[in-house]
Amino acid sequence: MSDTPKSKPMRSHGRVAVRPTLHPRDLMASSPQLQGVWTAKIITLFPQAFPGVLGESLTGKGLKDGLWDLESIDLRRFGEGKHRNVDDTPAGGGAGMVLRPDVLGNALDMASAGTPLDRARWPVVYMSPRGRRFDQAMARQFAAAEGMTILCGRFEGVDERVLEEYAIQEVSLGDFVLTGGEIAAQALLDATVRLIPGMLGNSDSIEEESFSQGLLEHPQYTRPAEWRGRGIPEVLTSGHHGKVEEWRREMSEKITRERRPDLWKKHLADKG
Ligand code: SAH
Predict the structure, then answer these.
(1) Looking at ligand 1, which residue's alpha carbon is closest to its atom 21?
(2) pLDDT tens digit string along 152-193?
(3) Does the Cβ of 150 fall within 6 Å of ligand 1?
(4) CA end-to-end distance (rounded Å), the chain
(5) How far is ligand 1, taken at its centre, from the CA of residue 45, in Å?
(6) Residue 168 and residue 210 in one domain
(7) Chosen domain end from 193, 219, 254
(8) Is residue 92 part of a domain?
(9) From the CB of 181, is ligand 1 less than 6 Å away?
(10) Residues 176, 143 contacting (CB under 8 angstroms)
């Protein structure tokens, strides 16, 4: 095998070479290629699931306005043989199927074209229940990068060697098991993309919302002033900004203390 000439790829890889791999923009083909914009590259067996809910509301408008970009990379394209197989049975036996490292490797190679190798500038993430739990701090890190690549698993997951070979960071949405990484990737992207400069008109709302100061948010109210016999806390209609601030702060602290003793402890420690 080692004497196979470079110009003549091994039979099993022949198909990959002739695939139109330079055209990953399955769904967004009509939008112009955006230079220098925060970009998510998603490796998935279900490219049609993107942008999904990210195509709506603020994230959708940002996508249309070119504040961020999305490329879905169809893993099936890199599959082997007539049926473009992407998976195989687990070594050692057991239920289900595992995504193959050679197939994933080719997709990751294509995703990495034109992206920085430095993982701080371009994180490469595998959505996985074994990963570090996603949180607001991670969203901030990802948003501060130039973009990121996200690998969505299916079946029993991916061959471990791929994670090692590409220094892939595993990120979990929480302690539960989904059937695939696509929904997790969209949740991660929603939280991340809204932090990209220019995405939220009012950056105050980022500074005041839950987790920004390590606290959960205070209760919110709007009109009507009375609804089913329930009023709005008087201080909020007093027009006294200082008092409003104070009330919100107190409520934030109270709610965090009661609901999330872990966050409260950390908040106190951080304050010193
Ligand atoms: N056998 C694996 C679960 C596979 S679930 C295990 O026990 O760890 C199939 C795919 O769904 C995974 O490859 C992953 O990409 C995705 N997934 C499932 N649960 C997830 C979670 N909590 N967070 C992020 N991704 C998840």
Answers:
(1) 129
(2) 999 999 999 999 999 999 999 999 999 999 999 999 999 999
(3) no
(4) 62
(5) 14
(6) no
(7) 193
(8) yes
(9) yes
(10) no
